[in-house]
Specification:
411 residues, alpha+beta, 15 helices
């Protein structure tokens, strides 16, 4: 109150009041004087003193307006935060897309048939999509393959897998890239930004999976179906042809076991190889691929043990090279063998045998063309590591049957 009083009355008024008060009070000395002076001051201060105070009556306070303004400010702030969150989410999505595009992936071939052919071996991007759609439902429930030593349900690991975070089309693309370009597993894993061990399991699992699915997609054709699509060149000369066969040898690493070295050594290639029997229909469709055998095995033995004879019917004929001495295997089945005639005891072929040889060679070459088309998958042109021997047969099978998506060779 004293401060307020000083501010309102001003210095001059305050000085006059103090002088008036001090003239009526007798000074004293000591603690009693201070006590009595305080009592007198309290009595004197209770006397009302007229003070003029100027007030600004133009100021008004509207509490309702203040509350409304606060609510409006809060709503605007909340809306601003929501816009900021939306903007940040768009930035995250954009950066994520840029990161994915920076990595090697299926988006590289989207809508580009030329790149699709180069990276996957399939003729068009549409065919890649169709194949992906065909296997996608089963691929979502795919379990990891554990090796060829176990069979049935025990050969697959249950539970979430490291590659389950990848989409189906990306998994399929990662497998086809290795088949087509012949890249090592570490290279492909780095391209797809994943651990090498995870990619190795993904590749093995998908190879076994594709082998089963392609076998269902391209089953052994019936006699009626072969006749329906048989080209004119076969109808005129060899109308009963069911399959054209030949063998393929792929170089492999030298095994450490002496027994395996002996089984895989090919005297024809002068190196350790795998040997596979391949069969195509007269129209050029790959219809049969055997398991991989050691390069030492003969053409006759692999034909007998591959299961091909069980698929033939009475009245069929098989076309092959003259190295396939399998007539004694086919005759009991009522199947004819068409191979180029041999010299026998004569020093040269007769004109009739030369013509037969020419006719057979003109048609038998289609199986060699089919093998050449499959070798566009560069993995078949490399030295197979011993560590991949468990899936070697499946790899060869998949590479050959993927060529069935291409245009027909024989028209």
């Amino acid at each position: 109150d004293h401060d307020l009083y000083c501010r309102e009355v001003g210095p001059a008024t305050l000085a006059s009041s103090v002088s008036a008060t001090s003239s009526s009070v007798t000074p004293r000395v000591g603690w009693d004087h201070i006590h009595e002076t305080n009592e007198e001051f309290q009595q004197e201060s209770s006397i009302p003193i007229p003070v003029e105070i100027e007030c600004n009556t133009d100021v008004t306070y509207d509490t309702g307006t203040i509350d409304l303004t606060a609510d409006q400010t809060s709503a605007e702030h909340e809306q601003e935060l929501q816009l900021q969150v939306l903007s940040l989410q768009q930035q995250v999505a954009s950066l994520t897309q840029e990161r994915d595009n920076a990595h090697f992936g299926v988006h590289w071939i989207a809508g580009d048939d030329k790149k699709t052919r180069f990276y996957t071996g399939l003729p068009t991007y549409t065919i890649f999509q169709l194949l992906c759609n065909y296997v996608s439902e089963k691929a979502l429930n795919l379990k990891e393959w554990q090796g060829s030593k176990t069979t049935g349900a025990t050969d697959r690991r249950s539970g979430p897998q490291p590659f389950k975070t990848m989409s189906v089309d990306k998994q399929l693309f990662a497998v086809l890239v290795r088949l087509r370009l012949g890249l090592c597993g570490a290279d492909v894993a780095a391209r797809f930004n994943m651990p090498e061990s995870s990619y190795s399991r993904l590749f093995s699992t998908w190879i076994i999976f594709l082998e089963k699915e392609l076998n269902l997609l391209f089953p052994w054709p019936s006699r009626a179906r072969v006749d329906h699509f048989m080209p004119e060149c076969f109808k005129q000369r060899f109308p009963t042809t069911r399959v054209i066969i030949d063998c393929l040898e792929i170089q492999m690493e030298r095994p450490t076991s002496l027994m395996n070295k002996s089984k895989t050594y090919s005297s024809y290639k002068s190196r350790n190889t795998m040997k596979i029997l391949v069969g195509i229909s007269p129209s050029g469709l790959v219809t049969f691929v055997s398991d991989a055998w050691g390069g030492r095995v003969s053409d006759k033995l692999i034909t007998k043990s591959s299961g091909l004879l069980d698929k033939l019917e009475k009245g069929d004929s098989v076309m092959a090279d003259k190295g396939f001495d399998i007539e004694d295997l086919l005759t009991p089945l009522g199947v004819k063998l068409n191979i180029p005639p041999k010299l026998g005891k004569s020093s040269q072929l007769s004109s009739q045998k030369v013509e037969v040889t020419r006719r057979i060679a003109e048609l038998r070459i289609h199986v060699e063309r089919a093998i050449g088309r499959a070798r566009n998958y560069s993995i078949l042109n490399q030295v197979f590591p011993v560590s991949m021997s468990g899936i070697a047969s499946a790899i060869v099978f998949v590479c050959f049957f993927l060529t069935n998506f291409d245009e027909c060779m024989v028209k």
